[in-house]
Amino acid sequence: MPIDFAATKALFHLPDGVIYLDGNSLGPMVKTAPARVEKAVSAEWGELLIRGWNLAGWMAQPRTLGDKVGRLIGAERGTVVLGDTLSIKVYQAVASALDMNPRRKVILSDSGNFPSDLYMAEGLCRTLGGQYRLRTVAPEEAMSAIDDTVAVVMLTEVDYRTGRRHHMADITARAHEMGALAVWDLAHSAGAIPVDLAAAKADFAVGCTYKYLNSGPGGPAFIYVAPRHSEVARPALSGWLGHEAPFAFDLTYRPGQGIDRMRVGTPAVFQMAALEAALEVWEGVDLHDVHRQSLRLQDQFIKGVESRAPMRQLATPRSHLMRGSQVSFRHPEGYAIMQALIAEGVIGDFRAPDILRFGFTPLYIDEDDVARAVNVLAKIMDYGSWDRPEFKLRAAVT
Ligand SMILES: *Cc1c(COP(=O)(O)O)cnc(C)c1O
């Protein structure tokens, strides 16, 4: 059955007068989230106190919600667990993957990866000692750069800046052929495009839930370990909740069964409550339909902008096969233009040095929103109204 996008839009709270094209950075709130969080705070924490861990299911939530996220990324049941932040999960996945390929010392990534992923890999190399190194190539070269020195290929499927999409199955197959493991970051994929981790034979995957999965600021990250590795992978961050028997309080660490070993410490219960509410939106939603509609909206936006605003440098590939859920344009005055757009209620964001990003999330963005966003951008460019001092002052978060 086709998705009724008007019905899904009604599930989200969007402030009056705002066209929200930044769900790729922070998804909006579902209308049921405040009551769900309030219940977790007052009825669960307030009344149950410590008993909430058992009676309200707090301890099981990282796994039960992990399965729900898993369904959206083609993961086998019981292979995904939630917790911590994405940066932590990147570290955990890459550390385990390196440990499984001990004769090789190179982590391969690309210059389109999110800096935190690269920083975490650098930090891990330092921790492991001098022999390990991170090699970073251009996104177009990632495939051909996989050679027999590479231990782990660590890539983000959809480039946070340009929206360019790697071919996950092909790159993973190449990595395996060359004796490397593949760790995929799905920050800009989960909830945006169809992902089939099992079919792609990914070894590890990680991602966050506050972007396209709408769990709210600081929502938990997730990690996937392929079933063939789940009893082999050794967690570098060996916290008590990843122990085989956390409440035995043994003095030595033994990894838990399967994906449980990737848990670290106490989960963020209120964030899990918000995520639980947000994930209900996905019941019966097929990511193929979502992505197809997103591409339609993207094309409408690109066509509108290219014909009506002097914003000629599209940073996103034109091929549908190489796109995620966002469109980016380059402009030397990108920061000021984005501030002028935000002042008019069209919210996207800016990534240095010159990228304006616009996310197209059909669950709550429709053709009228796109048409209005194009109109506002065309007006700002026609009148040069971005050229004001207040639009050039950089805020801490861009
Ligand atoms: C958003 C994003 C992050 C952010 O990591 P946090 O630890 O959640 O702050 C990391 N990597 C990628 C690829 C991202 O898109």
Question: What can you tell me about this protein's structure?
Answer:
With 398 residues, this protein is α/β, with parallel strands linked by helices. It folds into two domains: 5-30 and 286-392, Aspartate Aminotransferase, domain 1 (Alpha-Beta Complex), CATH 3.90.1150; 34-282, Aspartate Aminotransferase, domain 2. 35% of the residues lie in helices and 15% in strands. It has twelve helices and 15 strands. The chain has helices spanning 5-9, 33-48, 52-55, 61-72, 86-99, 115-128, 168-177, 197-200, 269-279, 287-308, 334-343, 367-383, and strands at 12-13, 19-20, 29-30, 80-82, 106-110, 133-137, 150-156, 181-185, 204-208, 221-225, 313-314, 326-330, 346-347, 349-351, 355-359. It has a seven-stranded mixed sheet with strand order 4-10-9-8-7-5-6, with helices on both faces. It has a four-stranded antiparallel sheet with strand order 11-12-15-14, with helices on one face. Helix 2 runs antiparallel to helix 9, helix 5 (86-99) packs across helix 6 (115-128) and helix 10 packs parallel to helix 12 (367-383). It is globular. The two termini are 39 Å apart. Pyridoxal-5'-phosphate is lined by residues 85-87, 114, 116-117, 156, 160, 185, 187-188, 208, 221.
How does the SSE layout of this entry go?
Elements: H1 5-9, E1 12-13, E2 19-20, E3 29-30, H2 33-48, H3 52-55, H4 61-72, E4 80-82, H5 86-99, E5 106-110, H6 115-128, E6 133-137, E7 150-156, H7 168-177, E8 181-185, H8 197-200, E9 204-208, E10 221-225, H9 269-279, H10 287-308, E11 313-314, E12 326-330, H11 334-343, E13 346-347, E14 349-351, E15 355-359, H12 367-383
Helix pairs in contact: 2-9, 4-9, 5-6, 10-12
